[in-house]
Amino acid sequence: MAVLWRIFREIFSTFWQFSYHLVVAIFNTFVPARFRQKDVAGEIVLITGAGSGIGRLMALRFAALGCSVVLWDINNSNNEETANQIREQGGQTTTYTCDVSDRRQINETVEKVKRHVGDVDILINNAGVVSGKLLTECSDDDIIKTMEVNIMSHFWTVKSFLPSMVERNRGHIVTISSATAFVASSHLVDYCTSKSAAFGFNNALKEELRILGKDGVHTTCVCPSVINTGMFDGFKIRYPWIIPYLEPEYTADKVVEAVRTNQQILILPRIVYGVPFLSWILPGKCLTVLLQMLGSDECMENFKGREKKNI
User: Fold this and answer.
1) pLDDT at 107
2) Which residues are part of the catalytic machinery?
3) N or C, fewer C-beta in 10 Å, the chain?
4) Exposed, middle or buried by CB within 10 Å (0-12, 13-18, 19+), for 226?
């Protein structure tokens, strides 16, 4: 009898919690984000890959919200340009030149940040690279570089800054993954793999924090499609009216909004939310036919990548 009562209580508790969170999610869907955003003024935000693209734009937006922004980038001149733009708008920032593919450099830079700036409140792992080559054409160094920048660096930065967040039960970790985590493409085997790993990293970290009872430390995983920053120059979307190229300003706005509303996953554009669902319910070849119709076979034919193009 005791066993049946315990099972009944567990089922009831599960049903109640499930219903509660479902109602909250539905409520949040219809309440404009501006009414649900937390105040981040005074917080320390660290952004990797802050010298260009959405890294720079996110830095400008967090600085405008009153954050002290720590900028990491391998390109010192680009990083300083971001810092200058922040200072021109009256923001507070500190720059560090760091190659996030080098664990030693990460660890050394982490110590400088802790010593000179303090404990990081919001960590945004944004730095990324793409080779755009067939797997058989990728050198071993290409593959290692992709994995080191796009996923291994997340381990080293999070391991370094998470302990203080856990101790204070306050913080936010943002993982910039990609829609390629669940929509694969030719010429992107190493890239898709690294972004799938980043997606899994975020999910496992979120679960680990839940089990630790650290409900004040939040995670957000961002999965955008192609952002018009230059990183994917030459990438072709056959029907941009179905899956449009993302404007960097819009993307940066949505990431900042996701952080301020503690949104756990952000997929852009919204139509891509349906892809994981379709991949689970459709036979594999049916999904392949749909992706072929959308141009997956030819999207990388004219890929050039970034050519020193900055925002």
Assistant:
1) 98
2) 191
3) N
4) buried
